[in-house]
Amino acid sequence: MFKKPLGNLKTSAPLRNSDRRKLKQHIIQTFSLDPDVGEELVPDGLLSVKFKTHTDEPGVAYLGPGGDPLWFTLGIGSEDMIPTVYTLWKQPDLLPFLSTPSAVIPVLVGGADLMIPGVVQHPPSLQAGQLVSITEYIHRSTLIGPPLAVGHMAVDSDVLSEVAAKGKAVFVLHAWNDHLFDMGHKCNPPDPWEMSPSVASDQQAIEDKDDTKNNGAKEPLVDALGSHLEQTQLDDPAPTIELTKDDVSSILHDALLQAIKTTFSSSQTSALPMPASTFYSTYILPSRPAQSPSQPPVSTPIDIKHSSHKSLAYFFKSAEKQGLLKLKEIKSELMVFSVATSHATVVAHRPYLSLKDVALRNEKRGQREEEERTRVKELEVTELWKPHLQSLKFFADAGFDTSTRYTYTEIKTVLDKYVTDRQLVNAHDQSYINVGADELLQTTICKSDNPANMEFFKREQLIERLSDKMQSWYKICAEGRDPVLKKGQIKPISVVVKVRQGRKATTLITGFEPFFLEAVALAEELKTRCASSTSVSPAPGKSSGMEVLVQGKKTKEVTEFLASRGVPKRWVHTEGKK
Q1: φ, ψ for residue 541 (rounded to 5)?
Q2: Which residue of 287, 319, 485, 569 is 20 to 30 Å from 417, comparing CA positions?
Q3: What is the pLDDT of residue 569?
Q4: β-strands 504-510, 131-136: how paired?
């Protein structure tokens, strides 16, 4: 349905709140959802945009706040809401699903419908015309791949279980990586999800029923890349998929298109000319489609030897006849001189997940894991307040524990409960509290001089006043250390650039001791990090802390070092030029 770009695409417009609520209620009723789930799938900030498909069929797409298409309709005035794969990834069990081997997925992405021989799992009692999702089959597992397509059933589910059944199983409306999907942020599919026990048992029962019907016969043939690929029995301990020579040739041809479209931009054609053998090993082989490790493996090697081409030279000359590249033979060696990045076949090619993409993804995952292992976990700094002096009576009379240390949020909760129970919220403006109506609250938060003039306070001001009347504490938690709980107000680390003796600049760091940093060790680390001389001396004033001095304007280097030691950004205060 969306294998070609959308036509007559209008500018997206925000959906009115009333329309969004109606749409949400319609979806909740249609798909039997909890209201919370409905709120997630039909969020605030929804946009609508009208379009026409390449077959000139009108439709409306509903985009989330981030631009991802979440729902769409097809036809004039249609109210049949169809979820996109972005929505199905949030709620995988929104629709009943059919599963198919990974070899079929690229065919669906290319715009084909799902054929009956390609169905591996299906629930019972599906009716023709029913909306379903299509997932990647994971052999003998309660895991199921993420939904990758959505469509209407072409036949009842009973037909799918018939021996040697042929024809279409699902009319595919939308698939991962089609042009509707490309309106969003084009992310990769999520990880497989765990089926609920009831769904898993239903699916397993269907597989067992099919096995019994077939009585040991082979699985139906699967259509991959337009060819019939034989698949072994489901009960085979090591099932494989065998490819014909034409299948291998088709895959290699797609790999060439993938390499030209994704690798050879204008800045990368400078690598040409190059030997055809180098081009083949460097660009074509890594561009072959990746296969999920959870799927039955392809037993046929995907290379020139197992294709219908007699040799690598024949393969390249065939591509040259199609106008995809230009060749020249130099000293008996075939060279690739250029590639046709604007060729119609290249432009129409839909990129897929290739072996190169998987290798890069694994490399990035390894880098992230290494970064996670080496990254210092950020310190957890919590400001606390304990009832003290004037505030003691307030907490005691209000029925709250006077020995507890409260966070700012907990103080707000205490105060909210107090003013609600005593009906102190101003009737004309609920952001104000009638402090003058409660003597205990007034004497607690007001200054000793003329408290009677303090009649009204905003809620936030009241919380600030109450916390000012309490004793300050703080708690710092660090990975691998016991939590530190101390009395007093914690202040951010001060990083100040000062200019002395004319133009000579220095960077002074103070207040770092509460954050598990020791002056001498800090000076040594910064000496290396900043490539500057450092010194340590007692901080001026009444403070018992130390001061680290770094020669030069080193604010950036110091703040980066503090961050690497887990000091949160909000607990570092900088002054002066960087």
Answers
A1: 90, -165
A2: 485
A3: 92
A4: unpaired
Distance CA 400, CA 393 (A): 10
Q: What is the pLDDT of residue 577?
A: 60
CB-based contacts of 460, cutoff 8 Å, min separation 6: none
Q: What is this structure's pTM?
A: 0.42
Question: CA dist 540 to 509, 547, 572, Å?
Answer: 12, 8, 19
CA 250/CA 306 separation, integer angstroms: 12
Cβ within 8 Å of residue 272, ≥6 positions away: 336, 337, 338, 339
End-to-end CA distance of the chain: 56
Provide the residue count of the chain: 578
- Determine the Cα–Cα distance for residues 211 and 200; give it in Å rounded to an integer: 16
State how far the Cα of 83 lies from the Cα of 106, in Å rounded to an integer.
Answer: 20
Query: Nearest Cα to 108, choosing from 147, 158, 63?
Result: 147
* CA torsion through residues 360, 364, 369, 371, sign: positive
Contact indicator for 235, 185 with CB cutoff of 8 Å: no
- Which pLDDT score, from 0 to 100, does residue 428 have? 86
Give, as one character, the DSSP assignment of residue 4.
S
**The dihedral formed by the CA atoms of 200, 203, 205 and 209, expressed in degrees to the nearest 10:** -160
- β-bridge mates for residue 504, sequence order: 500
Write the pLDDT tens digit of every residue in 100-158: 888 888 888 878 888 888 888 888 888 888 999 999 887 766 778 889 999 999 998 88
pLDDT tens digits for range 477-526: 988 888 999 999 999 999 999 987 767 899 999 999 999 999 999 999 99
CA–CA dist 384, 2 (Å, integer): 56
Look at residue 325 in the predicted model and tell me its pLDDT.
92
Residue indicated by tokens 């209008």: 10
What residue ranges of the chain have pLDDT lower than 70?
140-141, 195-240, 265-269, 292-296, 372-375, 447-454, 502, 542-543, 577-578
Nearest to 338 by CA among 324, 351, 349: 324
For residues 56 and 11, the answer to whether their CB atoms sit within 8 Å is no
- Paired sense of beta strands 484-487 and 471-477, if any: antiparallel
CB 108 within 8 A of CB 96: no
CB neighbour list of residue 257: distance below 8 Å, 6 or more residues apart: 324, 345, 346, 349
Distance separating alpha carbons of residues 256 and 325, to the nearest angstrom: 10
- Residue 408: which of 368, 342, 462, 449 has the closest Cα? 462
Interhelix angle 519-530/555-564, nearest 10 degrees: 120
Handedness of CA 483, 486, 491, 493 (dihedral sign): negative
3-class DSSP assignment, residue 359: helix
Report the C-alpha gap between 174 and 4 in whole angstroms.
11
**Alpha carbons 223 and 246: distance in angstroms, whole number:** 13
CA angle (238, 244, 246) in 5-degree steps: 150
CA distances from 483 to 380, 382, 386, 479 (A): 9, 11, 18, 9
In angstroms, the CA 512 to CA 509 distance is 7
